[in-house]
Structures are given as C-alpha cells and as structure tokens.
Write a structure and sequence with these properties.
CATH topology: TIM Barrel
Oligomer: single chain
CATH architecture: Alpha-Beta Barrel
CATH superfamily: Aldolase class I
Number of strands: 10
Distance between the termini: 48 Å
Shape: globular
Largest sheet: 8 strands, parallel, barrel
Number of helices: 14
Number of domains: 1
Radius of gyration: 20 Å
Strand content: 5-15%
Bound molecules: flavin mononucleotide
Strand order of the largest sheet: 3-4-5-6-7-8-9-10
Order of helices and strands: HHHEEEHEHEHEHHHHEHEHEHEH
CATH class: Alpha Beta
C-alpha cells in the first residue's frame, strides 16, 4: 500500500548517505532509528568497517579517454545495471510503511538484486511477485531445521532462483541500543515507546494506517503466536547442513557472513556459487575485524575464479569502487537504503541509488577506467596491504 504524503516534513533532498542518515534520525522514532543504525556491543566492528574502507586510497590517473563509462556488472549469468544491490534486512517496513514495496520497485527499475530476509515484513510470495528474478531469498535457520526447509520450498515455489544462507548469527548478538529502547519484533509498545512514537507523529500516523510491521513469513493466519522467534538461537547449523542444502537447492546458492579463509574454502568445497564476505554490518561479533580486510584475504586465498560478494560499512560510490578493487565481484549495502527511505520515502530510495551510481561513475573516471571489470587492485595505492602482516596498515 502506498501511503499519501502527510504535511509534517517535506521529503528530503539527498546528496550523500551521511545526509540520508541525518534526515532518518530526525524523522524516525528513536527506537526505530537505533534498530537500523545500531550494531553489536559497543559498536566497534561497525566503526572499523567504515574506517577501514575510508583508509583505502585509490590511484588517480590522467589522460585516458574515460568519456563513456559503463556500470553494468555480470553476475550469475545476468547483466545487472549497477555493481551494487540491496542487502537482506529484517523488518524494512519499519523504516517507512510500504518500504518493501519501494525496495522491490527500485530493484526492478534499476536492475539490481534485492535480498529478502527470513525476518522480512513482507512474505516471500508477495515479494517474488513484485521483484521477480531480482529477488534473492535470505535464509535463517533457527531451532527447527524443518521450518527452515519449508521456507526454502516456498522460495522455490515462488520462482526465486537465488538463495542466500546467512551463517554469522549462531546467536543474536546483544545490541545495547535495542536493549535500552525495549526494541522487540513484533513491536511491544509500553509508555516509553508510546512517547517516542508520539514525538514522531508523521511516522506513527503512517505506520498506524499501514498496520504495524510483522514477521510476515511466519504469520499463522489464525492470529496465534508466530512460528519464528527472532531472539532464538540459530546455532544448530553445521557444514553437513550446507551440503544437504546444496543437494536440495538447484538454483544459485550464496553463503553470507563469511569472514574466515578456511570457512570460505569449505563453502567452495560444499559447492556454493558465491561467498558473501560480511560481518553483518558489525551487528554480530563486535570484536570482528573490518570486513574489507577479510575480503582481501579471502580473494587472495581463493584466487580470481571464485565469485565474491561484499557488504559492511559501504557508505559511498567511492567505497563500492574500493571494495571492487579489493576483490569483490558485487557489492551490497544495507542501512543506506533504509536511511534513504526514512528520509524521503520512495523518492529517497531512488535518490540514493542515483547518488551512489554517480559517485561510482565519477571515481571510475578519476581512476582511469571505463568498466567495472577494470576495478582491480591495479587502482589501489597500496595493493594487498590488508593481506600482509609485515606492511603497516594505512592510518
Ligand atoms: C536493520 C537491519 C536488519 C538486518 N537484517 C538482516 C537479516 O535479516 N538477514 C541478514 O542476513 N542480514 C541482515 N542484516 C545485515 C545486512 O544484510 C548487511 O549485512 C549489513 O546491513 C551490511 O552493512 P551496512 O548496513 O553497513 O551496509 C541486517 C542489517 C540491518 C541494518
């Protein structure tokens, strides 16, 4: 459902991801902003993700004809219009009512993939209908393996061709901001949350009209308790499960949340089609190294043939180029899309996609390349710096 504009805040004009984040902070209830923006523990990993990316320097090149540049990227036998996509995120309708619809439309219009979380606020069937082949289903398996396999079956029956198994949430990490705010999914509203919502009437009225977001993949239909508990342990998964999943899932299989070279090798041996290097945007292990440093190591270990995806801390087109130069075949972003929707609804999403695309294109011109397959370590000032113990890390 598309919610008509209400006169509280004019939709923001976005010039950058940090811009979008500031507008989002202003427009969203604190509890919702913190759910999106927050990370595990004292948020060290989230900070390191961005700092490490920012420290990567690119070579500026001159007098190369870069007038015509293409951002088209080939992954999984398909040409995507841009080298980046939408990472799977739970409860996106919290950022803006109808958010999942906007994300699906944006994915189709911009020819980019969209990850749909197990914990999404719209069902697999609904989103496959809207995003078609752009939709990649992200699987969490909790206490019940059978329930996980039911989701896999639903994804297959809905025509989904790419499955992402997330492996970096054996337990749901403590997110201190969420604990302080009393954040729960589905939302529980006490006096503190009520006041927070009352202070953000535009978001609250729209959400009231659209209905509070739920974990739509687990609605029982009879209004009884949902079948998925976001807080429950997901630690039962083993490599044997991955092998069995590979046997049963005939489409493309991606394993997300890989940060160790040995795990990447094991996943390749199990027959996955792509390794998605990520530390969940710093939302799981607070002591994790910056994800970009793991990407360099994993690319070095697996060589050029492996298909590698990357996310965690990407906040600009410059970061997308940096990640590709460090070995990513494709880059995903999470929070930036939710900030943009919160800042300006559907138009915010398109604005941020345009901003990121323009930034990628500009950096390509400045580094002397005309296509994304030329974004190799040749454009890095310090190639391999994260992979080497004896080289000082960039300050
Ligand atoms: C609000 C939110 C919800 C998320 N939910 C999921 C999820 O359900 N499944 C998953 O695999 N990753 C989830 N993630 C992690 C993202 O897929 C992605 O790894 C992360 O956001 C990338 O970092 P970035 O936000 O710095 O771009 C979530 C991230 C956010 C911000």
């Amino acid at each position: 459902m598309v919610i008509p504009a209400l006169p509280f805040f004019p939709p923001a004009t976005l010039h950058s991801v940090p811009d979008a984040r500031l507008f989002a902070q202003r427009r969203l209830p604190k509890l919702v902003f913190d759910y999106i923006d927050g990370a595990a523990g004292i948020e060290g990993a989230a900070l390191r993700n961005q700092q490490a990316l920012a420290a990567i320097e690119l070579c500026q090149r001159a007098l190369i004809n870069v007038d015509q540049r293409s951002l088209t990227t080939r992954v999984f036998d398909r040409e995507w219009k841009l080298p980046f996509g939408i990472a799977p995120m739970g409860m996106c309708n919290l950022s803006w009512p109808g958010g999942d619809n906007f994300l699906a439309q944006a994915a189709v219009a911009n020819e980019i993939p969209i990850g749909l979380s197990t914990a999404a606020s719209s069902s697999i069937e609904y989103m496959c209908d809207r995003a078609g082949k752009n939709l990649w289903f992200q699987l969490y398996v909790g206490q019940s393996i059978d329930l996980g396999m039911e989701l896999v079956e639903r994804a297959k029956n809905s025509g989904c061709e790419t499955l992402i198994l997330t492996i970096d949430v054996p337990v749901v990490a403590a997110r201190i901001r969420d604990q302080k705010n009393g954040f729960k999914a589905p939302l529980k509203i006490g006096p503190k949350q009520f006041l927070d919502f009352a202070l953000h009437p535009e978001w609250s009225l729209r959400s009231l009209k659209a209905g509070a977001p739920t974990l739509a993949n687990f609605e029982t239909g009879d209004g009884s308790k949902q079948k998925f508990d976001r807080e429950e342990g997901r630690g039962k998964l083993t490599w044997e499960f991955l092998v069995e999943l590979r046997r049963q899932w005939k489409g493309k299989l991606v394993i997300k949340g890989v940060s160790h070279v040995d795990d990447a090798r094991k996943a390749i041996d199990a027959g996955v089609d792509a390794i998605y290097v990520s530390n969940h945007g710093g939302r799981q292990l607070d002591a994790a190294p910056a994800a970009i440093t793991r990407l360099v190591e994993i690319r070095k270990a697996l060589g050029p043939a492996a298909t590698l995806f990357f996310d965690s801390g990407v906040r600009s087109g410059d970061d997308i180029v940096r990640a590709m130069a460090c070995g990513a075949d494709f880059v995903f972003l999470g929070r930036p899309f939710l900030y943009a929707m919160a800042a300006a609804g559907e138009s915010g999403l398109q604005q941020i996609i345009d901003v990121l695309s323009q930034q990628v294109s500009t950096v390509m011109a400045q580094t002397g390349v005309t296509s994304v397959d030329q974004l190799t370590e040749d454009i890095l000032v310090h190639p391999g710096v994260w992979a080497s113990d004896d080289l000082a890390r960039p300050k």
